[in-house]
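Blinded run. Sample ID left blank on purpose so nobody reads anything into the name before looking at the predicted structure. Input follows.
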Amino acid sequence: MNASVSREALDARDRPARLTVGVVGAGRVGPALAASLQLAGHRPVAVSGVSDASVRRAAALLPDVPLVTPAEVLARAELVLLTVPDDTLPGLVEGLAETGAVRPGQLLVHTSGRYGTQVLDPALRAGALPLALHPAMTFTGTSVDVQRLAGCSFGVTAPEELRLAAEALVIEMGGEPEWIAEESRPLYHAALALGSNHLVTLVAQSMDLLRQAGVGAPDRMLGPLLGAALDNALRSGDAALTGPVARGDAGTVSAHIRELRAHAPQTVAGYLAMARATADRALDHGLLKPESAEALLGVLSDNGAANGTNGPGESGPGEKR
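Blinded prediction complete.
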């Protein structure tokens, strides 16, 4: 299913009945998804959360919905959102199944990118209907998240007989379902983390360096530049590569590394790693000519050795050459 599929286009018989909704784990994701389902006509009836921040989020996004234990959430809800950290999810599912909290016919939905539906097998054996619906979005824990779900892609994994129900729920939340095979979930999640989480680190480092260089509003300077770079990358992929590495400007790259060593040595390893990855992609796509690459790769290799990292073609401990 793709962007051409709208909520209105979904056949009525494929839409899930109006469901009572519960949330186990009132972090940034769960209350936003429940609030979105409420807009589609479903009814949040229970939420669980431990920290003060979780309680505040639940109160803000799901006012008047009672805060109860996880077992009580499952007792009250036909559709249960398990929105807990990845490492917590397997133990939570096992515990709920072992204590008899899971009811036959209950829709049990987790939002982990890492896992498919196999992590829900203990609940499946108890009669639950397992769904994995992962929104490819960063969450703030505020009402803006509900708006951001419009057009957001969801990584969907479910048994074939539940596929229509899973896709229908995503569409009702304003999202776009993207089918991910069970065995592909870890790779899918790694790809999203590489692009999203590391982007935050890169942007934060860039803003820090601009402040050191005397720029008063680094966010204002970077906004248009990074927005254009992201748009170009999404449209054109590697053809959008620009800058001194893609051009083979070894002298400029050497100067960058020298300045980073002097002012922000903690950023050197990341700069070298990204420069090597950029050089490899630029070479593979014919943007960086081999004759221009030799001096550049020499700079990266020399500085990699000085930084205690492996340069191109070098082997690390236990690695085959």
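Unblinding after everyone has recorded impressions. The chain has two domains: 12-180, 188-306.
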